[in-house]
Amino acid sequence: MKKIFLLLVLLPVYAWGSAVEQDPAALEWQKQQQQADKRLFKQIKAEVSAGYTDSLSELAALYYFGRGTKKNYKKAYRYFKKAAKHGNEYARYAQAFMLLRGQGVKARPSQALAIQEELAKDDFAPAQVELFYAYRDGTGTAPNQARAQQFLQTAARQNYPTALRLLGVQLRGTDPQTAFTYLQTAAEREDKKAQYLTALCYDEGIGTAKNPRRALEYMIRSAKQKYAPALWQTAQWYEAGYGTEPSAYQAFRWTRLAAQADVKEAQKRLAEMYAQGVGVRPNQQLAKKWAKEAQKAATPNDTDQLEEHN
Question: Which residues contact 40 (CB under 8 A, 6 or more apart)?
Fold first, then answer.
């Protein structure tokens, strides 16, 4: 049986905000990826048209993330709802997620939370984390910190990476060793934010011994998943020679990726690198373009989105 969201293997490497330039190889790869997305969308839509209900949630996700087609929350919600009626657990979760936030449908917090409560009873960890947020923040319900923590602990016992990371963050100040264990476990389950935080633990000696080499290792793992703070930190560590030999080329490479992810400090440094020829041939035109880009307001990140679920 196909994974619910095979398309999300293609996420989210491709959107770089207001990138000023890319090398020819990157542009060609992006072009090929866009073509693959379009082929996938055409295939999945044909499967749905043929009555293959297992593809409903995949089509919904394509519309939700705008892969192979324009982003369309209304269509995404409609197909998630249809998939949920056919027993797709994740589609039901996605339906509730969108209901709570008013994405493609009028916001109905109480209905959304009722769905999440039902899913949580079936030990569906993403719903348990959603309920943690809802009860912690009082979204659609009265705040209840004890109940919020109960849902978070339950999700963590299933080794759900997001829950493990959240517990790790909670405990960093009071029980750093346990916090580190939670964060590293989430990192090994490929949670990019946990990988970033695990790197910082090794860097600062929080809950574990300081280890620059291990810090860089985890930071690079997070950066390879295009987590913007990790991209920029990786660039700085290569430039400083932290955990490795200094490398102007690697510093330039990761700085450019961070700049393309709209990290303003990275854009400023990239302008300097082009101007001074650090890790790259001097290019005054690109230096001026990136300096100008660094002066623009940062593009808000749409963090309130569904996460990949396998």
Answer: 7, 10, 62, 67, 68
DSSP 165: H
Other CB atoms within 10 A of residue 272 CB: 14
CA 162 to chain centre: 11
Residue 303 pLDDT? 61
d(CA 242, CA 239): 8
Which strand (E) or helix (H) includes residue 2? none
**pLDDT tens digits for 171-219?**
999 999 999 999 999 999 999 999 999 999 999 999 999 999 999 999 9
Contact 40, 58 (CB under 8 A): no
Which structure tokens are listed for 34?
A: 């866009």
- At a CB cut-off of 8 Å and minimum separation 6, what does 170 contact? 179
- Region of 221 (left: φ > 0; alpha: ψ -120 to 50; beta: rest) is alpha
Contact 142, 103 (CB under 8 A): no
What stretches of 83-142 adopt beta strand conformation (E)?
Answer: none
| Backbone phi and psi for residue 175, each to the nearest 5 degrees, phi listed first | -140, 75
CA-CA distance, 310 to 3, in Å (whole number)? 6
> What was the pLDDT predicted at 24?
74
Measured distance CA(261)–CA(229) in Å, rounded: 9
Read off the pLDDT of each residue in 114-135 and give the average, rounded to a whole number.
97
For 98-110, how does the pLDDT look when each residue is reduced to its tens digit (9 = 90+)? 999 999 999 999 9
Q: What pTM did the predictor assign?
A: 0.86
Q: For residue 22, what pLDDT band results from cuts at 50, 70 and 90? A: low
In angstroms, rounded to a whole number, what is the distance separating the alpha carbons of residues 54 and 86? 8
Assess whether pLDDT exceeds 80 at residue 131: yes
Q: Considering only CA atoms, which of 93, 99, 51, 48 is closest in space to residue 69?
A: 48
